[in-house]
Amino acid sequence: MDLYSYFYDLVMQIPKGRVSTYGALARALGDIRAARACGVMLSQNPDPPRIPCHRVVMSDGSLGGFTHPEGIKRKIELLRSEGIKIENGKVKDFSKVLFEDFKTDYPLKKLRKEQEELRKKVILEDAHPSLIGGVDVSYSSRNAYVALVIMRDGKYEVIGEKMRVDFPYIPTYLAFREEPIILEILKKVDDDILLMIDGNGILHPRFMGLATYVGVKNNVATIGVAKSLLMGEVREGKVYIGSQLVGQYIQSGRKKGIYVSPGHRITLDSAVRVVKKYLKYKNPEPLRLAHIYANKFRREDNA
DNA sequence: GCGACAG
DNA sequence: ATCTTGTCGC
After folding, report:
1. Which of A291, A302, A303 is nearest to A138 (CA)?
2. B5 nearest neighbour residue (CA to C1')
3. Which pTM value belongs to this model?
4. Is the fold of A3-109 the same as that of A119-301?
5. What is the pLDDT of residue A191?
6. Does nucleic acid strand C have an atom less than 7 angstroms from the CB of A143?
7. Mean pLDDT, range A140-144, rounded to an integer
8. What pLDDT sits at residue A286?
9. Average pLDDT value for residue range A61-88
10. Which pLDDT belongs to residue A71?
């Protein structure tokens, strides 16, 4: 799903002489949580002012930001040239010129449904794959650099790949940003692998975090390893969503720990055991190395 | 001021 | 996630 293109098409619906808001665009995408992602995508406008990002303001009528050498001054010029009156940094008669009537089929709503459907296919039993690895992705604007580290008797091998991303980061929709990227690199290796992934497994509002999504879609065993808590309550190191046990908080030193949750084809206990086995620093080795290499690939490409 | 959301 | 240098500490 190319959410960037979908989003820019929405922005192009805002007529001259009208303005819309980050929140209205997010609702047109299907989830108000995407409001900040809307701001990010506007800042990356590939074709201004044909895609009229200058017509998007804050929900109180104040102007918001504008990524341009001349800054907000240029946004004001453009809006005034289209007949929008601006006083004290705010759009005058805001409610009269506000455009919210987007023609849309709410793509994020459909993606939520997909997550809920896929939930039925999650298997939380051990598959005992023969290989173990970790994947991580590093970004530079819309370029993604992915590294897959495969552990082999105390040593490891690394595979890298560069890709264009077509989906922004939106909380609880991370899978739709990173799964296509991870899939590309998975094609290059044996399926019989246990993959550690930066992000959550079933520790997710729809029990379908990145690790679980990657696992179910590609029939591969996965473990989710997150550095911060997306949701749920932690009691005695165990993470619950309501009464359901979905993860484990693991602290190695005295610093902040990690949140481990099963992705697919593994139990929570096994996931915790495997992660602990590779725990030398805060992150398990396959992930720590994948992180380092993904960053290295990005730097080398942008040098 | 509240709420706060992986990467 | 990215933007960013040196510096403190094990």
Report:
1. A291
2. A171
3. 0.95
4. no
5. 87
6. no
7. 94
8. 96
9. 90
10. 80
Residue A251: per-residue pLDDT: 87
Express the helix, strand and coil content of chain A in percent, nearest 5 each: 35, 25, 40
Residue A154 pLDDT grade (very low, low, confident, very high; cuts 50, 70, 90): confident
Is the CB of A239 less than 7 A from some atom of nucleic acid strand B?
Answer: no
Mind telling me the catalytic residues of A?
A: 53
Q: How far is the CA of A161 from the C1' of B2 (A)?
A: 42
Q: Considering only residues 89-108 of protein chain A, which place a Cβ less than 7 A from any atom of strand B?
A: none
A269 contact partners, CB below 8 Å, separation of at least 6: none
Q: Cβ distance A258 to A226 under 8 Å?
A: yes
Which chain C positions come under 7 Å from a protein C-beta? 1-3
Instruction: Point out the annotated binding site of A for Mg(2+).
Output: 136, 198
CA-only gyration radius of chain A, Å = 22
Out of 3.40.190.10, 2.40.50.140, 2.40.50.1000, 1.10.10.10, the CATH code matching A3-109 is 1.10.10.10
